[in-house]
Write a structure and sequence with these properties.
Elements: E1 11-12, E2 17-24, H1 31-34, H2 39-52, H3 56-60, H4 78-86, E3 103-106, H5 109-125, E4 133-144, E5 149-151, H6 168-179, E6 184-188, E7 196-200, E8 206-219, E9 224-230
Parallel strand pairs: 5-6
Antiparallel strand pairs: 1-5, 2-4, 3-7, 4-8, 6-7, 8-9
């Protein structure tokens, strides 16, 4: 049991931050969020589609988890910014206990690849007898305004918030910051020392999301043995 003692972390003043994220390519964009310009249009279209599309909840998730005012309608790639908050992972993550969504963004593509490799390897290792698998991930470039933000770079990598296996201290910090209205947390990458990641408690500050390259991950039965950047045949000369 972790006692939620407040940490004296500094605030962070920064705008127009760039970052990267990888998602499984089997998950397409959610057209409902990308096809509307504002909250009023979204509510009208959602109600209409709900009458005729029984699979709407599966594709759009649960918009009720996220205040409509936090959805950055009208930006490029809106659905990619919103998805982690409407499709909340019940198992949680480093800074969430599973009761709310978080959008995680890495400072560099190399950091995103390292983080995904660790977590996907852990997932595949739990599947008994899995000798081979393949996964294609889509990379995304985010532009976002972090403020108001808190900077956990003030904590050393040895702090319990950065424990490589237990998320207890990190989740306690996440709950505290979310309750205080924090929009963004900057923190150290645990899987790639020296790198930086961002945890967004809301997609409100996201300005654009652009699709980039695709990456193929190969599982050899013990580890992810190969990661290839996929080059479209149309780009070859």
């Amino acid at each position: 049991m972790v006692t939620e003692q407040p940490l004296d972390l500094p605030s962070l003043s920064i705008q127009r931050q760039r970052g990267y994220r990888l998602i499984n390519s089997k998950y397409p964009p959610i057209a409902l969020f990308d096809d509307v310009a504002d909250e009023e249009e979204f509510e009208t279209l959602y109600e209409l589609q709900a009458l005729t599309n029984p699979r709407l909840r599966n594709s759009a998730g649960s918009p009720g988890f996220l205040p409509a005012g936090d959805i950055p309608f009208g930006i490029t790639g809106c659905s990619y910014a919103v998805a982690p908050f409407t499709h909340v992972n019940p198992l949680g993550s480093r800074f969430s206990d599973g009761s709310y969504g978080m959008l995680y963004i890495a400072d560099e593509m190399a950091t995103a690849l390292t983080e995904v490799t660790y977590h996907q390897e852990h997932y595949w290792q739990l599947i008994d007898g899995l000798k081979y698998d393949r996964m294609v991930m889509r990379s995304l470039l985010f532009i976002f305004d972090p403020e108001p933000a808190i900077d956990a770079l003030a904590l050393p990598l040895s702090h319990p918030v950065y424990d490589a296996h237990s998320y207890s201290a990190a989740r306690a910090l996440g709950r505290s910051l979310k309750s205080q209205g924090c929009r963004t947390l900057r923190y150290r990458s645990v899987r790639r020392p020296g790198a930086v990641c961002w945890g967004l408690f809301t997609p409100k500050g996201v300005k654009s999301v652009q699709q980039s390259a695709h990456y193929e991950f190969i599982w050899d039965g013990k580890k992810i043995s190969k990661i290839d950047r996929i080059v479209s045949a149309r780009t070859l000369k």
